[in-house]
Each structure stands twice: as C-alpha cells, then as structure tokens.
Design a protein that fits this description.
The structure is a homotetramer of 407-residue chains. With 407 residues, chain A is an alpha/beta fold. Chain A has two domains: 287 residues, NAD(P)-binding Rossmann-like Domain (Rossmann fold), CATH 3.40.50; 102 residues, Dihydrodipicolinate Reductase, domain 2, CATH 3.30.360.10. In chain A, 43% of the residues lie in helices and 16% in strands. Chain A contains 15 helices and ten strands. Chain A has a six-stranded parallel sheet, sandwiched between helices. Chains A and B meet through helix 1, helix 11, strand 10, helix 14 and helix 15 of A and helix 1, helix 11, strand 10, helix 14 and helix 15 of B. Strand 10 of chain A pairs antiparallel with strand 10 of chain B, so a sheet runs across the interface.
C-alpha cells in the first residue's frame, strides 16, 4: 500500500496555503497541470517521490475562517481560483478545513493579533499551548493513519526576536521557558517547530522566521533524527537577484548600487508594514546579494511597500548600477510582476515531497541541498542560484538510486 | 625574455577595436583599472596568461581614418575616452595606427561599401587580396619579432551568405575559388580567417559572421594545428537571456513569449539596418534562447533598431511572459543600458589571452570552453551562461597546472 | 417618449464591439459602473445626452459567430467578461446577435479573408453589396422604430489603398465605380461609410481606415447634412504620446529619439501582421508625435508586433531620448499595460452619445472637437491631448445650453 | 543703457547654482545653446526680458569652497561641465566666486552642519546675521550698480519647522524673534527671504522650504511691493505626475495606486536622508497628485532614497495602477533618468527673467502664474501642468504689450 503523508500548514487560511491545498486538489482531479513544480522537471526525474494523491492536509491558523472561504475570496480578486474550479474541488477544501486547528498567539505582531479569532485569543499558558499543538499533530496522524506528518510554516512574517532570548539558547532552555511560561521574546514559530520536531515530524520554514535555525529546533531535530529546514521561500525579486548577481561577478562588472522596490497587496503586505516584521524580511532579501557580490562597496537597499490594490500580486522594480571597462557606468532595470501565491505554492509542494524523501533516506537536521528554494538557506553558503541548483541536482542524482521503504 | 603577442584586429578603426587598443594602453600606463576583464577574476587566478604589456596591436580596416581619430571622436560623444586620457596614450594609439592596413572589400553590405576608403576600394583579384592579407600578417610578425599573432574579427556584421556557396564547401574549394577569382557569395570574413589560419595564426570571430565555423576555416585550423573560435561576442541582451532563461526552466515556469527590442546608435547599428546583416545577427540572438528553453511553443522575437542619438549605447527592452501554477500568467521586463564597446573590449582582450594560452597548450580547432564569451559558441551545445562558466572554469583548473613555454 | 438610437457596429463579433454591447448591458443592469466613460465626467455634466438604455445594437461581421460566443470566449481568456456576468446579460447579447448581418468582403487583407464565413464570401457585385448594406440599416431602423442609427467602424485594420483609386476621387466617382462593379483599390470601409451617410445616418470610424476622411464620405455627409468623423481611436501608446510630448515642447527639451514598441495578442494583432495594414496603423501613431514636436530632427519609430499570449492585452514600451541644458542627454521610458477592449469600448459609447447630440444640434460633416478620442482627428491640427480636451470642453460648454428635440 | 540684474543664490556652491552660473556664462560665450530655457520658447516670444549678459551673479553658502571648484568637481563626475568648458569660462566663475559670502547656519539639519565651513559656523546672534545678509545684498548691488537683485533659494532641503513657531506668525513676530535672538524653529530660509524682501529685492524659493509662503515673507513682500514666489522647482517625477495624472482624470480611469520611488546621488540626496527634510520634500511631491486626482481612495506614496553612485542623476520609477471599463485593472510604469542640475538650472534662469519682468510691471507678492515651475505653487490651486502652462501663457500674452522701463 502507498504511503500517506500529512502536510500540516501553519497559516492554513493564508493565500499560499490555500493555493497549496486547492492546487493539489486541482492537479489530482486533472483540472490543472503541474506547471511550477520543480519536482516535475527533468532534474527530479526518476526520484521515488510521494505523489500528490498521497497527501492529506491540515493545519493551524490564528484567524477564524476556512480554506474554502479563502479560496473563494482569493478567486474573486485574483482569477486563479475561479468559482468553477473552486466548486469542483469543494470536497477537498472541506476535508482540509476539517483538519484546521486554532493557531498559537505568542508574541504576534499587532496586525496578526488584530486578525486573530476568539479561539486563538483565549488565554493559555505556554506549556498548555505546546501540548495542544502536539496533540493536534498526533490526532491528525492517528485519525488518518499517516506514515508521516510534515509541518510547514506559511504564517505571516514575525518580528525579529530581541538579540538574547534565553528560551532560544538551547532546547533545555526552551523547555524550561515553556514550563515556567516565560514567553518573552519567544517567537511562536519556534514553539511550532519544536512541537513538531519533538514528535519526530519534519519541519520546513517557508517564512523568514528564526524557527528552523534556532538552537532548540536544531537540537530537537538532531535528537529525533528528523529534517528541519528553512528559511524564507525564494519566489520573486530575491530569486532574480541570485540569478543576475553572479553574472556581474563573472563578468567583472562591479555593482555600485542595487536598489529594489517591492510592492505587494495581500495580507502579507499588511503585516509587513509593521517595521519589526519588515526588518526580518529585508535582512533576508539583502543577505543573498551581499554574499554573492562579496563586495563592501555595493550600496544595496530593499524596500517593501504595501499597495492594497495589487492584492496577491507582488511586483518589484530593481535598479542595478554597475561599472565597466574604462569606468563606463551602466544600468540594468527589471520589473517583476508575479502572482505571489502561484509562485510559492508549488515550491511548498516540492519541499514537502523532497523532505519526505530525505526523511525516508534517513537525513536529519538541516538540508542545505534545498538551497535553491530559500532566500536564506540554513547551513549553506552558496547563494548563486545556478550553483544551488547544482547542489540540488547532485543530491537528486544520489537519491535516484535509493529504494528504501516504498513510496 | 617575455613573449610578445600580436593582436591583429579586423575593423581596427571601429569602436570596439579602438577601446581594445586604448583600454590596453590606459591599463598599462595605470590610468584605468582592469574592471571588465574576466581574466582578472578569481576563476582565472594563477593562469600563466600573457599580460597586457606583452601585446602589440595592428589590424585592417576598409575605411580611411585612424584609431587615434576614432578615439577622439568616440571620446567626444561618449565620455569614456576623455580628451585627457586620449592625450596621455597618444603614442600607443599612433603606434597601433602605424600597423593598420587596408581591409578587404569582398561582398560587403552597401553601408560598408559606402564607408570604404580609396585603398580598400581599389580593384583587386581575390588571390591578390588573400596574398596581401598574409603579407600584412607576416610583415607584422617579423618587424615586431612576435611569438604569435592572433587575428580577431571586429568588423561590422556581414550579410548571411547564400545557402550553397561552393567556396565554403571545403578548404580546397576555397583555394580554387580564390585562385579563379570566384568571389560570389564568399564573405570577406572567411578570407581573413583562412589567411590567418593558413599561416598558423589563431583566429577569433567576435562578430556573427560564418567565418570561424566555415569548412575552409575549420580545415585550415586542423591542418595548421591552431585555435579558431567564434562567434558573436555575448555582451548585452543575449547575455541576460542566457542568464535568465535557465531560471524559468529550473522553476518549471513555461515562457509563453519572449520579445526583445534592441536599440543602438553606432556604426554597427547603421550597418545592421541592412536587412541581410540584421538577419544573421537576429538568428544568433534567438538561437541561445531556443536552445535553453527547449520549447516549441515559446513565441520569441528579436528586433534591432538603429537609433542614432544613442551613439555607442546599446539598450534593450525585453518582455518575458510566462505561465505558472494554476495557470497564473506573469511577466518579467528588463531594460538594459550598456555601453557596447566598454562591454565588448575587455572580452576581446580576455579572448586573446585565453587563446594564446590554449595555443601554447597545443589546442587546435574550436575552443568550446570559451562558450560564455559568445552568443553562438561553435561546437558547444551549452547555452546556459552559468553552465558555460563551469566549462570555462574546468578548463582553467586544468590549465592552471600548465607550465609550457614561459609566458 | 425617449429617443431610441441604433448603434450599428462594423466588426460586431470583435472584442471591442463585444465589450461595447456587453458593457452597456452590464451598466444598464447595474452589474458594473460607468468607469471609463468620458461622458460621465464633469466636463460632460449637464449635457442632454442619450442614456445607455436608449441604445439598440446591431451590426455587420464577415465572420460566422455571435457576440455571445465572443463574450464567452473573451471571458475565458481575459477575466473581464466573467461567465457570471455573461450569463446575466445573455438576453441582451442574444438580442444584439439577432441584428448582426454578413459583412462586406471587398479588398480585405488575406487574414480577414481567412476568417470570413460563407455568407460574406458569397460572390456579390458591388452594387448589390451596397444595396444590401443600406437595406440592413433601413430594416434595423424600421423594425426598432429608431430615431437614428449611428454606424461605427470597429473592423480590423485595412490595408492602405493605393494612391490614386478613381472611386475615391468623389462621390460621383464612387457611385460610378459601384455601378460598374469596379472594386479595385476601394476599401470596404468607404462602402460602409457611404452606405450609411447616404441614408443620413452618422458614421464614426474608430479604425485607421480612410473611410471617414475620403472624398465620397465627406460629400455624402455634406449632402445629407450628417456627422462623419474619425479616425483611429486613441486608447494607449498614442494617448500617452500626445500627453507627454507637449511637456518636452513646453520645457524646451528637444526629443532626439522616440521609439515605441507595441505588442498585442488579439485578432487585431494577427491582422496587423499583414504589412499593408500595419503601415496604415503605424502612420497614424507617428503622425501625432511629429505634429506636436514640430521637429525634423527627432528620430521616431513605431513597431507593432503580434504576441499571441497577450491576448486582449496591448502593451507598449517607449523610449524617449532627449536633450537638456548644457547638452545633457536624458531618458524617459514608459511601459503601458492596457486591456485594449476595455479602453476602447467606453470611448465608442462616448462617441455615439456625443455624435447623437451633435446630430440633434444640426452639425454636419467632420466633428473636429472630438479630437481627443482619435489618433488622427480629421480636420483638426491639434494633437496635444490637453489642448484637444479644451476644444472638447468648449464644445460641451456651448452644447450644455442646447435643448433641441428632447433626448 | 541696459539694465543690470543681480542674481544672488542661496547655496551658491551647490550643483544647481554652479550650473546656473556656468551655463549662463557658456551661453553668453556661445559655447552652448539655450536648450532647456522656457523663456526661449514661442510662448515667451516677444517678451521684454532681460537677457543673459545682463546678469551678475553672487550668493551665500555655508560651505567653504568655490563655484569654480564645484564646476570642476561636477565635471569630473558628470560630463556636462567638461574641463574644456570650465576652462573657457573660468573668468566668469571666478567673478561669481568673488561675490559669495558665508551663509546662515540657523536650525540646519545635521548633514548641513557637517558640511559647513568655519565662517558660517562662527557664533552669531540672529540680529547680527540678519544685518549681515542685508549688508551683503546692499554691497553687491552698490558695487555692481545693479538695477535690481533677485534672491533665489537653491539651498539643501530644510527640515519642516514645528507647527507653531512664534517667529513665523507675522512679520512683527519675526522681527521680535530676531531682535531677541529667539531662533528656535525658525528656518534659515525665512531669514534669507525677509532679509531680501525687506530691502525690496524679490525672493524666489526653488526648494521645498516654507520661506516664500511664510507670513513674515508675505507681509514683507506686500509692504515693499515686490514679488515673492515658490516653492520647490518642478523638474522630474512631479512634473511627470502633473502631466500624466490629468489624463487619467480626463479618461475617467480611477487611479487605485500611484507609488513613486526616487533615487538620487548628490548632496541633496545626502541631506534628504535626514527624515525631517525628507518629510517636507515628500509632502510637496504628493500634494500635486492628490489635488489633480481629487480622489480619497488613491493609495499614493513617494520614496526618496540616496544612491551615491548616481551622483547628480535623479531617477524615478513610478507605478500607476488604475481601473477601467468593466473593472479592468491596468498599469502604467515609467522610469525617468534626469540630470537634476541640468533640469533645474535653466528653470532658475527662467524664473529670474520672468520675476524681473513682473517686478518691472509692478507685480507684488506671490506670482501664481509661475505655477508650472513649482511643485507647490503658492496661491495657486491648479496642479495640472497643461492648465498651468495656460495660466503662464495668458500672463505672457498680457505682458507682451508691456513696455515699462527698458530692459
């Protein structure tokens, strides 16, 4: 019998999660094709990956709502999830909705708190919350007789935690803090991550949160021998940066300035207006550029602005000012117009399929070969997208032979 | 004693050649740095390359004029070769000017004929022209006691030759055509190439001409055991295409349309207005894209228009219309503003240095590892720029150990 | 009782016509608002205009098909005419479809011939065709008891007629040519125009055809005392040109080059690939610029390319290269992403409403104050959009007082 | 004998002032043409304007330096003021330099303080400073026997003053504050303005400072019967906004979002990094848009970022997201690449010539017909550039007949 793999999404009512669930259903029903899935390109050919019908969805969200409602709302404003499509997959959406549980409201940004529903707002001690999350995961696994559950963080960007939060020092510090209800500075994402890893469930962070790279998560992953990877899905402007910047390096054309202006209109944009959250996002975006250019003199800057009318569209304008032979000063401009969720959702499905395979192969801890999927791949210094794809392809080559337990 | 290497430039009074000569002089005199030279990046570190002071310049041009005059004219309109700079290197410019000989006016486009000077217009049989070119090269080598001469084609884009020109069938066909003065359909570039290769001088084609890949040139290179490579320097829009297109492939985002609009203002632009010449340029530009995308459904198009006010600036606007998950339709636009000669000149210097090293290493025929430098690298199927850079880096790794005859 | 005005659309199954009919119905039913209608802005406030429920639609098309089918096809690919919307206005679409008659296939471009249906392909002498068109219009008026019928040309761009077509010399020449079946060089648009005007029905040309400005049409309009205006709706790139170019003139910033690259994906684009049709389109686009800049030295150029994936979207990239104080060379770039039919359709409704009012006010011949709606407004030298809007506003001021026969 | 008019520039060593002085000299010597001067276009034809040779330059600056040094520095980095040009006008530059006096360092931003020279840093009471400025102006007029002196503010953007600064309430409050040395919150620009106006010298504010519109300046202008106008020269992005926004209004295409990203590299950019100064700049830029669109629902935003490598170039990327018929959502993007000083300098010369004429015609107080030159024209509600040009043209028509005292 085929494996059954649970996918538990943090931020289950968000646009990306909605597109993951709806898109998977639409593919399984043959209503759309597999465009956008890296796992369906030649580089992944022959890998013993779990296929889309083997996935069962659930998740957490701090808001009241439903994936079905998000899909319908999204469809009205976006054109991707048309009413016709949504209707045809309504059973799958409902099934996933039945598996969504209240999220954890710890140190949330004011924008997130404002959106939160009654269930998530209920006063709760950290220890109780931690237990509740684990109970949700266990129940999900048991009721669906899942071979594994993979937890993916798709929640809104968190604020950067302060520089020295005791609970983040080690797994034991974390456990103490939870026990004593010392939540100060502790990001909710870390609680989710440890809750999952501690149960031997892999954890993937598609947001810029610190969770996957934090000491407690790393230790829990090592202890339980499961994968834990992040962070921040590379879907648009940063992807282009990591594709284009190596060209300037290769051609010995020093970049004097690289300034990027991002505009986006969805809930993510609203949350990002909170400067704390913005800082963590911007840091990740710029990091990649700095590492590739290896230059101290490049003036780089990233702006992210909320432009409500764009809704789920994420656009960017980047100006690259560079120097050439004989001091020539030249420019490259690009304008990117991406549908954020449509870019992110297939990568989430890819990450789950690849993580599931890595888990079966016995990999534990971070998975640096997943670098091309992340803005800031943990434990990987390679930022150049083409070089990251080579790491990824090498892993695929090794894994291709792998038989292991049947998919 | 150090090697002395001659660089003989076809189109010596053109902007690119002028920047090659002036830029080399400026670097040698410490008036500018080595920005733009790939041979000065880490990938080439430790290679036993000839250094810039070892180069001696000469060349051919069908026009009357001088490199010094081009430099001064260029400086007025462009700002790169300022009067101050030109003054300081006037001795070097004059020295190179003393080595420029009349070019060959065979099957030239009307625009080139219109520019040609009296010396080049003089009636001359093919055989006489061929001998004259070889005499020019021999004299250049002998008078300067050069260890080698590398001929680089920087002339204006030629028209595509008709599909079956007897002289292009083989080296012996070529020789017969020259002997019988059957010039019909024979591109001047092929005559230059065979003239050089036949004397065991390497030949590099930085233009889209058929020369380097033609049967006569290939046979001559094989016979004499020298390198012969092309074609069409990859400096701007095509470079970006070969950097960006692999991203769409890697991410499984099918490109529905990729349309590029190039505008440029220099003599090259004037010549390109001739549709025959334009066709060969456009073919090369599109080829790379088609090969990378491996797609029959992509609508691709390249336009090259002459906009005189842009002078030496080459700008491009590209629109990429692509599809994503759930049928999302997205766009990437880029605008490139490059100073054409400043982008091309350092690559010419790089190519000469690398070819000189390859020659000393005993390489003969085409040099496919030079792929990242060309729009249509001969004998190389790899179009993805990052993959081309890997081929190049591999060669460098192998060559690094090479001692051979001292530089 | 309120006036009833017939709108007879040439090219009734096209995207623009479909949006005119569907959009009017949607507004009348309160399913969408009046965004995009100039006649609903303050400049037109208080004018005794016929309102949308007073319009009755009919038309001609050389293709087989229906407005309903076009709406549904358009909706699938565009998102404007959603299935929900189309369903709610299906009765209006059917009603209009019942009034569409076979078009006239005279000197059509091969692309149009290829699309034509059996009814339009039937052999027919010119005189018979002319009579048929007039019979269609009379029957439409009589059956619906219309106070007036306004004919609007929305057909695909025609090829420019040769320079001296006898039938275009005068109305009597035209009549003779029709009688003798001498169709050579006679554009179908002129036959439509004279057929309408001869019956005292106003004629508006929203395409670049020569119809509205031709001698036969002018004479017929004068003879019957009815309005006749054109040509070529100003919806996108040209609109921007006529808005931006005056700024450069006002600021004494000479434009050295203005190059525009248009890409579009609909049927219009397919037809425009035929170079004859393209020439007439491009001529109109450039004319406006030349007149505003009053410059002989500006290098201007317009490209229109067919990019199927864009469907009904019309995009343009324009580069303006201009000179300033102390010889500074500067650039303005713009990228326009317009939904062609959504931009054109409300202007068609505006033109009909304004022409109807002009007719009631007794205006005859060309209506130069409608200049802001056209790329090449007949009998109007003013190209500057702001200045055109002033002419239009002045007319509105005069007309505001007008009572005339009740609307 | 011809009038002699002094132009006294606040911020005399800045790029704009340098280009004003150098450009005037270059034109007078016939080294460059009058491109960029509005006063040399047909709209101003026949006006009895003072010509460029009639101007004598002087000014204030808080920095040590010289116009000659700025010109040479500017030339190296920009290409406009080439060494050849600067050399040929060195006498004029020196002559102007001899008339530059230490500026006033009152409530300057830290960036300006950091640049200030010893002379300007010297402790000085407000009253002494005020007297010093007036003495500078009188001495300048007397020594050069000038018919008039026009003071133009070209200094770096000041911080917005707090909301209730007593000294800004009225001219008498201002005088009291000066007498009592109560400088708190008093912008230096106001001191300059009143110093000039109080001596019956017209004052023009080309910066976003509050000076020209402040109560003390207005009262002084009224009292002395001289012109006083501002504010903030309209040279780039805002110019485009006031040209493009009316098009959207005219076509009934509601703008949902208009976001603008400005990048610039000169000293102005450095000063603008100080958020206080930035706020006043951004406010002026947005004001125009809001007034034209008359919309509460438009999301508008302006960013100004300092990108040092751009030096004197000011670039902007603007995204306009608008709605059309049937709810279509469309976009316009523009990229502006302007040489800031080359755009500003001719407008400064225009303003001086026009103000001089207005003064001779007896105009006093604000000059709202100069609206097209300013981002926020004082006492003028018209923001639409074309409409502003009409006001300007009307004034010119009236003034054309004016003989007055000979030029």
């Amino acid at each position: 019998m085929k494996r059954k793999v649970g996918i538990f999404l943090i931020g289950a009512y968000g646009n990306v999660a909605t597109c993951v669930v709806a898109g998977t259903a639409a593919i399984v029903r043959g209503l759309t094709d597999r465009t956008g899935l890296v796992t369906e390109t030649p580089v992944c050919e022959g890998l013993p990956l779990a296929d889309l019908p083997q996935f069962v969805f659930g998740g957490w969200d701090v808001r009241d709502g439903s994936i079905a409602a998000s899909a319908s709302d999204f469809g009205e404003r976006n054109g991707l999830l048309t009413p016709e499509l949504t209707k045809k997959i309504s059973r799958e959406l409902k099934r996933a909705d039945a598996e969504v549980r209240p999220g954890l409201l710890v140190n949330a940004t004011p924008a997130v708190v404002a959106m939160a529903g009654a269930a998530s707002r209920k006063k709760e001690k950290l220890a109780a919350g931690f237990k509740r999350l684990q109970a949700d995961l266990r129940s999900f696994r048991d009721r669906h007789r899942l071979d594994d559950v993979i937890v993916v963080n798709l929640a809104s960007t968190e604020s950067m935690p302060p520089s020295d939060v005791p609970a983040l020092r080690s797994l034991s510090h974390f456990r103490k803090a939870v026990a004593k209800d010392e939540s100060e500075g502790l990001p909710a994402s870390v609680v989710y991550a440890v809750a999952a890893l501690d149960l031997s469930f892999p954890f993937i962070d598609f947001t810029p949160s610190v969770a996957a790279g934090s000491a407690p998560a790393r230790e829990a992953a090592a202890l339980r021998g499961v994968p834990c990877m992040g962070r921040d899905g590379k879907t648009g402007e940063t992807l282009l940066k990591t594709v284009l910047a190596p060209m300037f390096v290769a051609r010995h054309l020093p970049v004097m300035s690289w300034v990027g202006f991002n505009v986006l209109g969805n809930r993510d944009g609203e949350v990002l207006r909170q400067s704390g959250a913005l800082a963590s996002k911007v840091r990740d975006k710029d990091e990649a550029l700095r590492r590739i250019l290896k230059s101290d003199t490049t003036h780089s800057q990233v702006r992210i602005d909320y432009v409500p009318s764009l809704e789920d569209w994420k656009q960017a304008y980047d100006l690259v000012h560079f120097k050439g032979f004989l001091g020539a000063r030249m420019q490259l401009h690009f304008i990117w117009q991406g549908c954020d969720s449509a870019l992110a959702a297939p990568l989430v499905i890819d990450l789950v399929r690849m993580t599931d395979l890595a888990r079966r192969r016995g990999e534990r801890g971070t998975l640096p070969w997943l670098a091309p999927f992340f803005k800031t791949p943990i434990d990987c210094d390679v930022q150049d997208f083409a070089a990251q794809m080579m790491l990824f392809a090498q892993w695929c080559d090794e894994a291709r032979g792998f038989g292991g337990d049947g998919v």
